[in-house]
């Protein structure tokens, strides 16, 4: 069965007693509660790598007679966790700045065809490590009004996920087309897919369908929350279609024309 989730909305900003979230108004109490949950989740997420780093360094500290080589395993483990922690903090800082209105979207005329080619070219070596390759089918000159840095980040998040959750030796197709309704970009992988009852939740901060897999692949559980924020800021739409053990398709839609920002 194919599952679908559509999301449109925007970051939280204060508006006389209410937080404005996309097109709906959320009472302050709920907004504060959300922030508290976010803080609790963030602390919890950071506690795990800290504990792993501490344990590994303790082993190194207390094993004086081991050779440097045998200690490298513990040092490597600690290093991996520090790297993951760094990524979590970076993503958290982005979302915190986004929530408080500190991320300024600077729209200009951007060439999405060029950006997609550029990002796929840069990510091809990472995909190649697992025998995964990109197939781009793009209209020429997909021009939109957008923030180049943020749209690049959005593409990186979606392609990174497509790689992380794909089976080895498969392809990831990227379609880009324009019609009278605007620009549509589709990223299709042949990966593990997402179960119907999980699909609505993957945009929630820290929500991961398979926590262990996300962790081994270096995930933070914040990528799609950031992706959604970026899409919202561009007044676009993001939709997921997925089938377990078949693959996932992420569909982006932008209709803001250059000169109409
Ligand atoms: P993560 O850092 O864990 O990848 P994301 O916020 O980017 O976090 O995604 C949330 C969850 O959604 C992932 O942990 C994964 O379970 C699921 N997911 C995202 N993209 C895909 C995909 N292309 N295929 C299958 N599952 C996906």
Task: Tell me what the structure shows.
The longest helix is centred in the first third of the chain and has 35 residues, at 28-62. The chain has a six-stranded mixed sheet, with helices on one face. The protein has a three-stranded antiparallel sheet with strand order 2-3-4. A hairpin with a 2-residue loop joins strand 8 (171-179) and strand 9 (182-188). The radius of gyration is 20 Å and the shape is globular. It has helices spanning 28-62, 68-99, 112-128, 148-164, 211-216, 223-233; strands spanning 3-7, 12-15, 18-21, 24-27, 108-111, 133-138, 143-146, 171-179, 182-188, 237-243, 247-254. Mean pLDDT is 87; it is low at 7-24. Helix 2 packs parallel to helix 6. It has six helices and eleven strands. It is α+β, with helices and mostly antiparallel strands and 261 residues long. The structure holds adenosine-5'-diphosphate. Adenosine-5'-diphosphate is lined by residues 161-162, 164-165, 189, 191-194, 202, 207-210, 214, 219-225, 248. The chain crosses the membrane at residues 1-20. Its EC number is 2.7.13.3. GO terms for molecular function: phosphoprotein phosphatase activity; phosphorelay sensor kinase activity. It comes from Acetobacterium bakii. One of its GO terms (biological process) is cellular response to phosphate starvation.
């Amino acid at each position: 069965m194919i599952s679908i989730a559509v999301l449109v909305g925007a970051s939280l900003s204060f508006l006389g007693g209410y937080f404005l979230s996309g097109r709906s108004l959320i009472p302050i109490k709920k907004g504060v509660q959300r922030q508290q949950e976010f803080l609790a989740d963030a602390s919890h997420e950071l506690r795990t790598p800290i504990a792993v780093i501490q344990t590994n360094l303790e082993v190194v500290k207390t094993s004086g007679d081991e050779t440097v080589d045998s200690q490298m395993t513990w040092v490597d483990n600690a290093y991996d966790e520090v790297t993951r922690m760094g990524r979590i903090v970076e993503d958290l800082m982005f979302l915190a700045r986004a929530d408080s209105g500190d991320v300024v979207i600077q729209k200009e005329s951007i060439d999405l065809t060029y950006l997609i080619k550029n990002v796929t070219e840069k990510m091809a070596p990472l995909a190649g490590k697992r025998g995964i390759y990109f197939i781009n089918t793009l209209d020429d000159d997909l021009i939109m009004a957008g923030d180049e840095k943020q749209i690049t980040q959005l593409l990186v998040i979606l392609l990174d996920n497509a790689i992380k959750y794909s089976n080895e030796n498969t392809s990831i197709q990227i379609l880009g087309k324009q019609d009278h309704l605007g620009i549509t970009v589709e990223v299709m992988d042949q990966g593990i897919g997402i179960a119907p009852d999980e699909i609505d939740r993957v945009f929630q901060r820290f929500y991961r369908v398979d926590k262990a897999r996300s962790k081994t692949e270096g995930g933070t559980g914040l990528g799609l929350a950031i992706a959604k924020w970026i899409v919202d800021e561009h007044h676009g739409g993001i939709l997921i279609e997925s089938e377990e053990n078949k693959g996932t398709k992420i569909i982006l839609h932008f209709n803001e024309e250059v000169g109409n920002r």
